[in-house]
Amino acid sequence: MTHIVRPAVAGLFWVFVVAAACWAAFAAMWERWRAPWGSSWGAWVFCATLIIWTRMVLNTKATNDRHDAPARDWLIAATGFVVLYAALFPHVPKLVSCELAVMAVGCVMVGVLPAETRRVSWGLFPLLAQAPLVSTALDFYVGYPLRLCATKLAAVMLLGNVAAVGTGLSTGGNVVFVDAPCSGIRMLSASLVLAGALSLLLRFRLIPTFALLASSVLLALFGNAHRAASLVLVNIPPDAPAHALIGIVVFAECSVLLLLIAKFLHRRQTRRISPEGVASKAGPLVKLTFLLACAATAGLTMLPGGIPAATASTTTVAWPKTWQGQTLSPIPLPSEWDSFLSGFPGAWAQFRVGDTGKVVLMRYCTIATRMLHPAENCYLALGGDCTPMPSLRDEQGHVWSRFEYTAPDGAKRTVSQCYFALSEIDTSRQLPARVDDVSDWLRSATSWSDASAWYWASSMPGSDVRATLAITVAEPTHTGG
Questions:
Q1: Are strands 326-331 and 168-171 parallel, antiparallel or unpaired?
Q2: Neighbouring residues of 462: CB distance < 8 A, sequence distance ≥ 6
Q3: Cα-Cα-Cα-Cα dihedral of 195, 107, 77, 8, to 10°?
Q4: Residue 424 above 90 pLDDT?
Q5: Where would I find the H helices in 235-283?
Q6: What is the rounded CA–CA span in Å between residue 366 and residue 368?
Q7: What is the DSSP letter of 374?
Q8: pTM of the entire structure?
Q9: Ramachandran region of residue 118, left (φ > 0), alpha (ψ -120 to 50) or beta?
Q10: CB of 179 within 8 A of CB of 391?
């Protein structure tokens, strides 16, 4: 029993060392897992991966390759990820820092396994990569490209009977939009998890694992396009039960195809064991370098200013006086939104619209920033649920994404949001002061219905977006009867 327990305890020690070095990343992941706007999906996958790895450690037989430290090459790789994490974490999004941290942990986890097990443990990495992923953050960065790809593929699948217009499908004079909730983020994430699990189950090596992961990504893109094409073809509204059912059926279809691909790759995988021998043990210098890198990384993130603190905005804006002919009366923002707006690089204000019951939140910034997040994050922080609704095109041609917010007390509100680009002459911070009614002022402005589409348009080289005004309108949901 000692020959099994000792390597397991030693492996946990090295995992703990690298996790402690990247404590800031794991603290950020913990906050995301428990936040109302976050998701526990990454936490469940991370815990399941740790259980799988523990069983791999305990189930391997005693060999000469068992040592109390990760193999040399894997420890060097882990050191590289730790150094990269320390160098980049003040300058890159938290999502990137967290991915570097879990990759460092993954290198240590694989490195403590015997050589024959290490060669078939590549599936651990796509599973670990799910830990930092929160659907809202992932949708912000890749949601728009995924929807654009799904729209183009769906138009091809429908044999030219519809035309792709941005992220919408035009048919019969109507445009059906592939909204943010239909970006395929969950399908892509689930496909990668399934591919990683199959890689471990079938003991795939590097090349078959890579082929399976690539297949899972392509199938997820195909599945999302297939779902969009099916919904347009049979004209199913978003609130119909069949809408979710089609998504489930398409994912099951893609899962079966992925299983068939895995079976094919398993047959092709060579049965011969290459004469690799015993992997080199990590020498004292490699161990010392790794420990020093971990200690320095942990120390740097503890120093004052090591983690960039949110700074309050000093931008001042002369806000408009009316909205669609109704007087705008400033009202305070909920305290639950302080964490979202404390580091926002711009200005914000919330107004009551006359006596209509509507509430308008305006956010103004001059840079492409992750802090200009979707309104769903703010409302989920209040508690309750957000249910996607179909996008709506207004009289000026601007498309507004919408969702229904159900408060903890049962009250319902319909929330619409749109992101408007301001022209170059409007960047003097006196922008709303030159007109009273902001709705008239934005009539001819370029707009985007969601944060991801706006972010890509404003952050690309050569973008002419100099400033942005994000408008969120919440009004009581009117029910028939």
A1: unpaired
A2: none
A3: -150
A4: no
A5: 241-268
A6: 7
A7: -
A8: 0.80
A9: alpha
A10: yes
